[in-house]
Design goal:
The chain is α+β, with helices and mostly antiparallel strands. The chain has a single domain, classed as Gcn5-related N-acetyltransferase (GNAT) (Aminopeptidase), CATH 3.40.630.30. Helix content is 31%, strand content 28%. The chain has a 7-stranded mixed β-sheet with strand order 1-2-3-4-5-7-6, sandwiched between helices. Helix 1 packs across helix 2. The N terminus is likely disordered.
């Protein structure tokens, strides 16, 4: 189930739209997300088996309805990224599955994507977004810091949570 795109930034051809994680668009972009992060973790191309296992170990089914949402980032008709928010308690959600295709990086796509997720989160009553990020995802860590995410006391015991950050959202309703 796709919804009309959110308003794109005035100077960009990038748009954001909600998608169901189980839809063909959702599954395809999540596969690209996992291919990227698994490969970065191992420092080589990820195998299909490793990607499938990661998708089973860390399902995204709850990124819709009352428990969260998943969006795709498009440049024209081409899907160039994704991201979502998972509700962890009333008013608090985790920023997750953030991915921007290598061909689109360095042009403000990450900022557009995260800003869109923040706006949707605030519209849904989320006042705090938190996240974890691995050391090897240095570009993402830098982006989050530039966007106002600050270190917070640990909330995750995940072996992939090298940095734990959070940001208070402004109400955009």
């Amino acid at each position: 189930m796709e919804r009309e795109p959110l308003a794109p930034p005035a100077t960009s051809s990038l748009t954001i739209a909600l998608v169901a994680p189980a839809s063909s668009t959702g599954r395809a972009v999540l596969r690209r997300f996992y291919t990227d992060i698994v490969g970065r973790y191992w420092g080589r191309d990820a195998t299909d088996r490793e990607v499938e296992q990661a998708m089973l170990d860390e399902p995204s089914d709850d990124l819709e309805g009352d428990t969260g949402f998943l969006v795709v980032l498009r440049e024209g008709e081409r899907v160039v990224g994704c991201g979502g928010a998972r509700v962890v308690e009333p008013g608090v959600a985790e920023l997750t599955r953030v991915f921007v295709d290598a061909s689109t990086r360095g042009r403000g796509a990450g900022k557009t994507l995260v800003s869109g997720i923040e706006a949707l989160s605030a519209e849904r009553g989320i006042h705090t977004l938190r996240l974890t990020v691995r050391d090897d995802l240095a570009e993402a860590h830098g982006l989050y810091r530039r966007l106002g995410y600050e270190p917070v006391p640990p909330f995750s015991t995940s072996p992939y949570a090298d940095h734990q950050l959070a940001k208070a959202l402004r109400d955009v309703r």
